[in-house]
Design brief:
The protein is mostly helical. It contains six helices and no strands.
């Protein structure tokens, strides 16, 4: 399997959780806003909409390989921020697993930011 195919598979795998999570937030914004408010962040409804839109759009960008390096940096930062704000509870095994998941995803996005989208992407077609 060549590098471009591997990068496409990586983009698909990394994008799935963002697209699915973003769409779930879009169709359940009240629950997302409640969760955001529960950790003490202000403007929970505004942040819920921002997160839902960001996750959906960023996931689609990663999937199709559009603005991949910039989007991958932003999604890595998003993963770290949300991991530490929402899941940093080392006394709760599930929250610790979610924190580690976010850290691992950030690593994947940073690798993608470094490698770029590959030839099977919108970025390559635009170059």
């Amino acid at each position: 399997m060549n590098n471009d195919t591997q990068l496409l598979i990586a983009r698909i795998l990394l994008s799935i959780i963002f697209i699915m999570s973003g769409l779930q937030k879009l169709f359940g914004i009240e629950g997302t806003a409640g969760y955001i408010a529960s950790v003490g962040l202000p403007a929970a409804t505004l942040l819920a909409w921002a997160a839902a839109i960001f996750e959906t759009v960023a996931g689609i960008f990663i999937l199709i390989g559009f603005q991949t390096r910039n989007t991958a940096w932003l999604t890595a930062l998003f993963c770290l921020f949300t991991g530490f704000v929402f899941h940093f509870n080392l006394g709760d095994q599930m929250q610790t697993i979610n924190l580690m998941k976010n850290i691992a995803m950030a690593g994947g996005f940073l690798a993608l930011a470094s490698a770029g989208a590959g030839a099977l992407s919108v970025d390559a077609k635009r170059a």
